[in-house]
Amino acid sequence: MAAAEACVGQVVLPGDVLLLPAHPDEDGERLRLGGGAAPRGRLLCGPGLRRCAAGLLVTKCGLLRHRQTGGGAAAGGAYWVDSQQKRYVPVKGDHVIGVVTAKAGDVFKLDVGGSEQASLSYLAFEGATKRNRPNVQVGDLIYGQFLVANKDMEPEMVCIDSSGRSNGMGIIGQDGFLIKVSLGLIRKLLAPKSEIIQELSQLYPFELVLGMNGRIWVKAKTVQQTLIIVNILEACEYMTAEQRKQALAKFSGN
Amino acid sequence: MQRGLDSQTKKQLEEEEKKIISEEHWYLDLPDLKEKESFIIEERSFMPCEDLLYGRMSFKGFNPEIEKLMIQMNSRGKKEEIEVDDKMEADVSDEEMARRYETLVGTIGKKFLRKRDQCVLQDEDEDGNSNTRPSKKAKRKFLKPQD
Fold first, then answer.
1. CA distance A157 to A149
2. pTM of the complete model
3. ipTM (interface pTM)
4. What DSSP line would sit under B74-122, residue for residue?
5. Spelled out in words, what is the top-level CATH class assigned to the domain A2-82?
6. What letter does residue A143 receive in the DSSP assignment?
7. Which of these, A7, A31, A35, A101, is most buried using a 10 Å CB contact count?
């Protein structure tokens, strides 16, 4: 048992309970409700945490993170555990790269790295109708979003947003190279103003697709250039910022 | 008499007992549960926590479509603010609007007149047209652009 604020940036283990400062809805406060107790914002309890009677229960090991200005309704800030793992667990709303493994009538089966294969309806593509089927073959890479993802049901993916537009989702081009990295590295790459991405973008023209399931698809003008990017991205996992800069300096001369 | 009363009270007592038993079947003698509003939202995704970017990226003009999409998707939060500002500025100024509608007053006015009145108006127009036509034609003449 420790106060959540004191643990920010420190290692937390499954079973730890983080205490939160008292809420204004507690009985003592309720009596002087007229006194103008400011309505506290809701607290966002992110991945690796679960709420319990005393506060927050830790369910993953990693570093506790906190952000004051949580997105949307969570004005009270957000806590989550920054953990290192390789196994992806589907989460609703996540963008992932899936590999088509089967075409079974109306749905495609996609391997997304989770415990179960995700299903993708042939109608969940931009501009698809019953007559106009998307041209999807077994082995194709698909960038999509989870519509249904919970522990009891088969995850379902779509390649359109709520307004029916694809917004870059759908089949990813034929060539290019797919690699698998840890989920922590993906988050590092997707963070706003990520140093790795900024340094790589100075090298030469290339294209990246990053899935939250740890898959990265890379394409550059030549196979050699593609492989250079791939090797740097894979090595980033175990390199410090300085080592990375040294490695990049070698290629920027070419 | 005494017996009769006894039987009545007995019946009443029995009924009361039955009621109590039947009520006990359906209700648990527990203190009322307090409803408490939760101030914690559970979220399984990293997206709202870490403000992650859109997963498709292109650099140095490799795929211009994706680069456009990147700007669009990664500035969603900021864009909304800009859009609000745009709405505040009127596309058409008040003066322009007034000038536009000045010419429409006659045409729309006709709509609300009776048919007979419209005919009179047209006749007047025709009478007037004989005078105005030449001037109109002069107006419509092709103007040579100055170099």
1. 9
2. 0.69
3. 0.80
4. HTHHHHHHHHHHHHHS-SS-HHHHHHHHHHHHHHHHHHTS-HHHHHHHH
5. mainly beta
6. E
7. A7
Looking at domain A177-252, which of 3.40.50.150, 1.10.260.40, 2.40.110.10, 3.30.1370.10 is its CATH number?
3.30.1370.10
Separation CA A38–CA A124 (nearest Å)? 45
CB contact under 8 A, A190 and B58: no
Check if B135 contacts A (Cβ < 8 Å).
no
Q: Would you state the pLDDT for residue B135?
A: 54
Q: Could A187 and B59 be called an inter-chain contact, meaning their C-beta atoms sit closer than 8 Å? A: no
Residue B44 contacts A where some CB pair is shorter than 8 Å:
yes
Q: Cβ contacts (< 8 Å) between B52 and chain A: which residues?
A: 187, 190-192, 212
Query: How far lies B143's CA from each of B132, B137, B139, B140, B146, in Å?
Result: 20, 12, 9, 8, 9
Q: How many residues does chain A have?
A: 254
User: A124 falls in which pLDDT band (50, 70, 90)?
Assistant: very high
d(CA A133, CA A88): 30
Q: What residues of A are in contact with residue B34 (Cβ under 8 Å)?
A: none
Alpha carbon dihedral A95, A100, A104, A109, in 10-degree steps, equals -40
Q: What is the average pLDDT score of chain B?
A: 75
Interface check for A46 against chain B (CB to CB < 8 A): the answer is: yes
pLDDT of residue B96: 84
Q: Tell me, what DSSP letter sits at residue B35?
A: P
Q: What pLDDT, on the 0 to 100 scale, is given for residue A136?
A: 92
Q: From CA B98, how far away is CA B107, in angstroms rounded?
A: 15
Burial of A127 (0-12, 13-18, 19+ CB in 10 A): exposed
Alpha helices in A85-203 (DSSP H): 183-190, 195-200
**Reported CATH class of domain A95-171:** mainly beta
In the numeric block, which tokens belong to residue A231? 């090797």
Beta strands A49-51; A95-104: pairing state: unpaired
